[in-house]
């Protein structure tokens, strides 16, 4: 039981290839565990085990192994009961994923609305509803749904991030920045959100306010590097943002960094990025999940 | 007075050992385990909010606290002032309250409010779970075993420990090393925590709960408000805290900091 289970944790979920590898083993994992669960049902009855089962279900759904996903879901709902909020959310996710056409998705939406009219603070279902609206290509409905959600639960960083993403997809830059700042207020040390905010500021800096926004962008990228000193995305963004400031001659304008500091910063980021690219290219397998980032970084280094 | 350096000897019936020391210890361990399972059985999960407005009433306070604690690592002056003004005016006007019209009225009596009643019952049950077995066992020991000296500690102690180790035995001259039955009960009461940890697994009364909660949404379940507390008062308090806040930002000068801390000297 130990070997496949530990593997689940090692593989990062965002990578499609490893997700596929994992999902291919799902029937084996599930079969094996049902065998051993019969012997020692008490020892496997931990929160950890069920969290893994949930992960496995998501991976199976992504790779099209609906049958294994169904097995996972059944096991979870057997333990926690079908009326558990999170199980309801997972079941909704399963229905959505296996829906054949648009009307089937509409039916899911109807079901969510029904559930919500009975228990308005069912957070997983609220979130599923927003995600479904988004995949049905109704972003403005999704945004209004999310605004309702964050109004009621303003301490949910995930929801704020999603809202920022939705706003950005609609071209509403300043709203997106506001949402990401709210998310950061909840999790002030998450370097990925810092660098995401930097990216957002960078992309929004086209109009008259560009100078100030770029300055803030550099600050957030720097902060993300300060928190995680080999964060590739942060370094990449730092190079882009500082290059743009230098190119447009914003350096030294009121309250901004001096040109010298910016040049130093850029040189430092380039150096560091070069080191990272070099070391990660050697250890290729381990960094398989971020291969695309690595390629982009290499390309940037060649350009400079 | 006991003569210093002279070993006191008391002839004890060895049966004292088997009929008092062991029973007390075993009973204490068993009640501890029993209490653990009783707590697990009777624990009611904290009630999740039933409407969106109720959820907002609970979490708005946390949002204010978050802003106060984390603003310095995220926001620049402009967006901080904007948020501060928004939160303060919201807190002041009662916009975050579940029922803004009820503002200023005295809070409902917790005895008649069903939600408050439930929370009070929860606390009561928890306290009862501690009190009742303790009272019973203590009176049991007092009735059957009071006045026995059952144990001699193998090391000397100062006179201060006398009241701790010899409760129930009123002899002035008895050496501090001797332990009475009632004191043995107290020692067990205080000192068995690690034994329970060994038997029931570490954080014992909480372990089962954590698992149940694992499936729910922790962010939405949090409730900073105690039952019977008036959220409006807490809001006004928080508004005051926010108002006196001075803005500073650790993002100022982060670039130089990075260059100083991470960059090699040559750059």
Automatic annotation (TrEMBL), chain A:
UniProt main location, coarse: endoplasmic reticulum
GO cellular component: EMC complex
Keywords, in A-Z order: Endoplasmic reticulum, Membrane, TPR repeat
Record SMART domains: TPR
First and last residue of the signal peptide: none
Bilayer topology term: Peripheral membrane protein
Subunit text: Component of the ER membrane protein complex (EMC).
Subcellular localization: Endoplasmic reticulum membrane
Biological classification of the source: Eukaryota, Fungi, Dikarya, Ascomycota, Pezizomycotina
Superkingdom to which the source organism belongs: Eukaryota
UniProt similarity note: Belongs to the EMC2 family.
TPR repeat windows: 157-190
Name of protein: ER membrane protein complex subunit 2
Function: Part of the endoplasmic reticulum membrane protein complex (EMC) that enables the energy-independent insertion into endoplasmic reticulum membranes of newly synthesized membrane proteins.
From TrEMBL, chain B:
Listed name of the protein: ER membrane protein complex subunit 3
Topological relation to the membrane, as annotated: Multi-pass membrane protein
UniProt entry keywords in alphabetical sequence: Membrane, Transmembrane, Transmembrane helix
Record localization: Membrane
One of the Pfam families matching this protein, by short name: EMC3_TMCO1
Lineage: Eukaryota, Fungi, Dikarya, Ascomycota, Pezizomycotina
Annotated family: Belongs to the EMC3 family.
SMART domains, per database record: DUF106
Role noted for this protein: The EMC seems to be required for efficient folding of proteins in the endoplasmic reticulum (ER).
Transmembrane segments: 16-38, 130-151, 182-201
One annotated GO biological process: protein folding in endoplasmic reticulum
One cellular component (GO) term of this entry: EMC complex
InterPro entries: EMC3, EMC3/TMCO1
